[in-house]
Amino acid sequence: MFVAFELSGEHDTLPKAEVLACLNALCIVYDAKMLLNGILVIDAQIRPETLAVLSNRLGMTHRIYEVDGMSEPKEDAILAMVKNADVYKFMEKGSTFAVRMPKNSSYPEKKAIIEQVGAIIKGKGYKVNLSNPSKTFVLLLTEQTCFFCLLLHSKDKKRYGARKPQFRPFFSPGVILPKVARALVNLSGIKENELFLDPFCGTGGLLIEAGMIGVRVIGIDVQEQMVRGTAENLNFYGLSGDLIVGDAAKTPLRDKCIDAIATDMPYGRSSLIARSGFAPSLERLFPDALAEIHRLLKPGGKAVIVSNFPYSRSPEHFFHALETYVYRVHKSLNRYITVLKKA
Q: Of the residues 130, 154, 178, which one is the last residue of a structural domain?
């Protein structure tokens, strides 16, 4: 079947990359068909229970649909598409329905086309229920195409807002927002019950998002205060993990024990790190931490590194740089997100 993902607009490329990373992590075989105006369409056979897991994982996707038809974004073409669509495969006897269009749709006669499509489906023997329908059909329009879809999953936009850093028991300024943290965890390709590490865990934002998708987590930070705060934050969300006060460049963990890593390299806490006594040279912090990440990762494992400068290849680490994204924090600060794979 064709599955459409309505991507969020926070970034040009991260939402698509997150979807594809999650598909791979869940071992879903797919063929990416098109990306039009924030609508990613794939061809894949996905069981309902797997689709529910996928929906729960994604941070930068608003809704997931099954596509039942495609046409030009013109009234006559849209109505002909809906008339030919096999809505019976979605509907049971006595099912009710509603027809929607996204609020940001630029279609000029939105209300009229919704009513006409609703009349067609009603003519097939089903009743309209706008407040609590059994099924919701959606017209997704791009400049080139109209998709006639069945809504499968809709994300509650408030759930990430409720986990903003300032609402946690322990707060420190300058941390990654939950939706972005979830995307970073997903880019690492981590699977349920695998072992995830953040060697610069700070207040635990990445660990929280990883724990919420059923991942075992380890966090390391050079500051004892941060480790205590991370423990408090994890507990606040009913999560747990192994937390260590220590040097990210020299951990007590054994070789090749970690399935995936994501971390936000320190850039605003340099003086604190210097005073800790763990990092002998701030200039060596990044390369030494990267060498340790390479040691800890299992072969084929991924590390998602966020830094305030572009990643530079280092042959001694034997990493493949798979993807790089520039994430704008504010006018004067860009952060670079690099996905590395251990050879």
A: 154
Please tell me the distance from the alpha carbon of residue 343 to that of residue 341, in angstroms, as a whole number: 6
Q: What is the DSSP string of 143-205?
A: SS-EEEEEEEEE--THHHHTT-GGGSSS--TTPPPHHHHHHHHHHTT--TT-EEEETT-TTSH
> What's the structural domain count of the chain?
2
Q: Among residues 123, 154, 185, which one ends one of the domains?
A: 154
In 188-311 the beta strands, taken as DSSP E runs, fall at 195-198, 216-221, 242-245, 258-264, 297-307
Mean pLDDT split into 10-residue runs, the chain, 343 residues: 94 96 98 95 97 97 97 96 95 94 84 96 95 97 93 90 94 90 98 97 97 98 96 98 96 98 78 49 79 96 93 75 89 88 92
* Total Cβ atoms within 10 A of residue 174: 14
Same domain, 196 and 309: yes
Contact 194/261 with Cβ under 8 angstroms?
A: no
What's the CA gap between 278 and 334, in Å, rounded? 27
| Token reading at 272 | 């604190």
List 151's β-bridge partners, or say none: 65
Q: Which of helix, strand or coil describes residue 220? A: strand
- pLDDT the model gives residue 271: 42
Range of the structural domain that residue 53 is part of = 2-154
Given the DSSP bridges, would you call strands 297-307 and 258-264 parallel, antiparallel or unpaired? parallel
